[in-house]
């Protein structure tokens, strides 16, 4: 699935590329020096790679891609070989909670609907608590 995932999304999610472009635009504007950027449900890392290419590599931004699929994370790591900024990819189930720290940006495109309803409030609370003011 990981090898055809992007093609699947582009064909089945209306305005997928436009959403990616907007997310990169806003993330690049809000990513602050010496902070962290997270993509929860990063799948193949496409959005994070676009973001890494759009921010100043000298800003000291730490990039984290989180996904529960090892196959997606392997694809992400291959994708990121071309990145100007390294990324740490972490296998995690968002239903189990997640520690967000020192974040200026947290992206969760097409992901929250896959978190069980009873776990969503805690996840959103953890994101909120990990975001820096501003």
From TrEMBL:
**Start and end residues of each Methyltransferase domain:** 37-134
SUPFAM superfamilies with a match to the protein in the record = S-adenosyl-L-methionine-dependent methyltransferases
Q: Which CDD domains match?
A: AdoMet_MTases
Q: Does the keyword Cell division apply?
A: no
**Could you tell me the keywords of this UniProt record?**
Transferase
InterPro entries assigned:
Methyltransf_25, SAM-dependent_MTases_sf
An example Gene Ontology molecular-function term? transferase activity
Tell me the protein's name.
Answer: Methyltransferase domain-containing protein
Species of origin: marine metagenome
Taxonomic lineage of the native organism: unclassified sequences, metagenomes, ecological metagenomes
């Amino acid at each position: 699935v990981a090898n055809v995932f992007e093609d699947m999304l582009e064909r089945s999610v209306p305005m997928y590329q436009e959403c990616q472009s907007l997310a990169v635009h806003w993330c690049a504007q809000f990513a602050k020096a010496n902070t962290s950027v997270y993509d929860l449900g990063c799948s193949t890392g496409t959005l994070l790679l676009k973001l890494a290419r759009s921010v100043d590599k000298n800003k000291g931004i730490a990039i984290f891609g989180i996904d529960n699929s090892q196959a997606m994370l392997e694809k992400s790591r291959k994708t990121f070989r071309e990145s100007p900024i390294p990324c740490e990819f972490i296998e995690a189930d968002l239903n189990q909670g997640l520690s967000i720290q020192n974040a200026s940006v947290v992206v969760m495109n097409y992901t929250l609907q896959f978190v069980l309803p009873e776990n969503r409030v805690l996840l959103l609370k953890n994101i909120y608590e990990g975001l820096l003011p501003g």
